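Task: complex structure prediction.
Instruction: return structure tokens for all chains below.
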Amino acid sequence: MAQEFLEKKGLTHLNNRGEAQMVDVSGKPITQRRAIAQGQIRMALSTLEAIEQGNAPKGDVITTAKLAGIMAAKQTAQLIPLCHPLPLHKIQVEIECDRHLPGYQIRATVGTKAETGVEMEALTAVSLAALTLYDMAKALDKTMTIEGIQVIEKTGGQSQTSDK
Amino acid sequence: MAQEFLEKKGLTHLNNRGEAQMVDVSGKPITQRRAIAQGQIRMALSTLEAIEQGNAPKGDVITTAKLAGIMAAKQTAQLIPLCHPLPLHKIQVEIECDRHLPGYQIRATVGTKAETGVEMEALTAVSLAALTLYDMAKALDKTMTIEGIQVIEKTGGQSQTSDK
Amino acid sequence: MAQEFLEKKGLTHLNNRGEAQMVDVSGKPITQRRAIAQGQIRMALSTLEAIEQGNAPKGDVITTAKLAGIMAAKQTAQLIPLCHPLPLHKIQVEIECDRHLPGYQIRATVGTKAETGVEMEALTAVSLAALTLYDMAKALDKTMTIEGIQVIEKTGGQSQTSDK
Amino acid sequence: MAQEFLEKKGLTHLNNRGEAQMVDVSGKPITQRRAIAQGQIRMALSTLEAIEQGNAPKGDVITTAKLAGIMAAKQTAQLIPLCHPLPLHKIQVEIECDRHLPGYQIRATVGTKAETGVEMEALTAVSLAALTLYDMAKALDKTMTIEGIQVIEKTGGQSQTSDK
Amino acid sequence: MAQEFLEKKGLTHLNNRGEAQMVDVSGKPITQRRAIAQGQIRMALSTLEAIEQGNAPKGDVITTAKLAGIMAAKQTAQLIPLCHPLPLHKIQVEIECDRHLPGYQIRATVGTKAETGVEMEALTAVSLAALTLYDMAKALDKTMTIEGIQVIEKTGGQSQTSDK
Amino acid sequence: MAQEFLEKKGLTHLNNRGEAQMVDVSGKPITQRRAIAQGQIRMALSTLEAIEQGNAPKGDVITTAKLAGIMAAKQTAQLIPLCHPLPLHKIQVEIECDRHLPGYQIRATVGTKAETGVEMEALTAVSLAALTLYDMAKALDKTMTIEGIQVIEKTGGQSQTSDK
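Output:
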């Protein structure tokens, strides 16, 4: 009963006894896959201005956050218990200053050629880039919030559905 | 000029040439410190119901997310480039079903006795718990969003300020 | 002399001077491979009963041990010096209460499509699941023993032999 | 009811709702602590002889297993979900050939000065040393078994009891 | 302008806005690739003699350094921010005593079948083997220097050029 | 005999049977400790100029290398088999363009308050910063060499000697 329900509904990380497992992807074809995730960090305008000014000569705050995102994407399978370890062919993290937020918009694009998708890698990259921005500005601002982390595009795999 | 500005404003991860560094905390006293962070994942009500029903017999989705948060907190200094490696004395992750969201409310409490605070550990725990919930439900729902990740309490250190 | 001996006998991690190396698998065909390992943890019956009763409402002890096993399998090549890093397509850890032992029976199944086998991944999953059960019950019982860790099935590769 | 039971019985990794947590050790005194664990790997006598002969000139099999045990002890808190990250002051792994087993006896001694004990570090060192011996001999022998992993001494902490 | 310059010159880790990224290798063919790197550690002759004599019965210093090199090669993508995670088919580290240096010559050979090369893995293996030799002899000698770390052979990929 | 020799000479990573161990530092006092290491990467002048020009707008090459050095310092005990895991209070990596080399001069300063020193952390930071510079310029230049990695200052501990 419950099993049928789960199978229909697709909670594929739970096996037919409701227990956690890393699902078997060995029967899936290897295809080019890409996922794009985004998110943002909201902060006081004065914090944003301090980063932008302090940042101007060297770009370190933004670069540090980008690198943290890229490196975290490569650690996704170590961080998320039921994710498959995958080769990754491309990881790009973009961070844009948004004075209207105010804060930063973060976007991560991850590509691979594998049996399963990379949206968790993209989401992990966005999350760690945001946390790193937080870390570097937290002495200035105790009220920052990380928001809107979501997948905005996923290609490859059957009918573009999330099947990892 | 820029240096004076940075010193006054407190972008302590940037040294006086605007470059990234892991700030020296050796002069700080060791005190009991605690940080609490929260966040949430929003999903379709049908997704929430599927998890809650499928979850009933074993609790695996929620437990998996909690453990991912706890384990990620212990990895914080490896994930966030300029964070100090710290001993951690307590990590607790709580996840509550919220039918009004609909989705889950996540809260992490981290404690230590150290020269610097643990808000990044608490934020990292919340973020990875949320990402793990996402991972386990993503076959059901492509529109989930992770939101509202913020620090809600920080004690210990000078005047309760963020000084890591 | 010694070299010939080693070649015949198959101590393939030692090269012809008796030194450690990670053996070259690039000439091997990529095939579907699977390994199953098992093991057990023996404890006082009162410990087992405490876990089973305390465990009932949330399943946390067993789930935590399973997840530790799954996550450790993904770390095998970082933990065992001469293991090859491999993609993994499936990891399943099963833990059964055995009142006759008394204790828990643990079984791990790992699958991949690669040049070399995954028995070390399966054995690592069993070992860390057992260690995690130990960790969670050690306040109750100082006399637990982990036993009988072995490979019970290995398929794929030439003549089903261990050739990693 | 269940809570009282757990408190009395000491399943300290479960909080009063039966959920997993990393227990708070901040109230505990820092003391010198030491733990010794042991285990063994059983193999065919011919396998043991092959290792001992091949091993003679360089000692690589045994040294590799010792180092794997030492390095794994340092990773314990990353591998076992609810273990505390601790400084470690000493890690020693001893491996003795036992022709009567036949196989190898493994013993690990770990020391620290901390709020909680190091038996999990000692058990992890023994387990990974045994797995590494398995890995290095598996081309010779498909019937090896890892056995008898247990704590044989634990000092430091209140009344020498396991309280991590 | 700058972009064209970069494209011509090949600073492929910088995208057309001069920002860090992990370059997209998904369009590249999978080929057999191999890289060999070398380096050396220079020390006092008396240090070298102490290691060689102390080392004789067990070979531990050299074996420890080799294993550190092999294990580090497998961590390359976690250590070097813009490196791609790759399967590795072979890792060999050789360390030779050189009384004329005096010190040790280190050489690492790494092989894979992938879209991009493995020279960073070979260089990382040499570097960590050298650092481990340093660590094991540093109580004897404060003047050791690690030198001459370079790639000496790279095969596979287009026209044997470095394109990772 | 051999043991006495080793004890006198100070190969403290080898115990009295010549085997690898992580030495016991629990009897040592906790003191403020600092180590500074340096090294350099030599490259073609045209490569240096390309980096400096491409680098101007964003500083990414240098920042990426600095961050890689800082993050690697935090991983030292995972990378070097017999190093003790330590809290780190300060990590600074400086990279200066040297047109006379031509190439980059790298310097790392690490501080802690612990029972043992941090020269391996400083050397590891320099090594990984150098490897990252190599990685980012390798498409331009196949003849780069990493050189002169050494400790230039070590304070704290008994008589400023290396005793880790």
